[in-house]
Design goal:
16% of the residues are buried. The C terminus is likely disordered. This protein has no helices and eight strands. The strands form two sheets. A four-stranded antiparallel beta sheet has the order 1-2-3-4, with no helix packed on it. It has one domain. It has 81 residues and is mostly beta strands.
Length: 81
């Protein structure tokens, strides 16, 4: 599991891989009692890194499935690609 707080502290992103290699990124809203606001699936193997952009509008991820992705972050309702 990889964790990364947004620069403004409003979101926590966590990259998770289950036993059956299901991989996803979960986002929690810190200002809303750590509410789970979104789950995104897109990688096919373990995620090694999560990096927020300076303005917290995007988060990048790289995986051992040989892909890197950039996700657009909606600051209120959650996250969408």
């Amino acid at each position: 599991m990889r964790l990364a707080f947004s620069n403004n502290g409003c979101f926590l992103a966590g990259a998770c891989t289950m036993e059956n290699s299901r991989t996803f990124i979960k986002f929690w809203a810190m200002e809303h009692d750590c509410k789970d606001v979104y789950t995104y699936r897109g990688h096919k193997n373990i995620i090694h890194e999560l990096t927020w952009s300076n303005d917290d509008r995007f988060i990048g991820s790289c995986s051992s499935d040989f892909t890197a992705k950039v996700w657009s972050v909606n600051s209120y309702t959650g996250v969408e690609e």
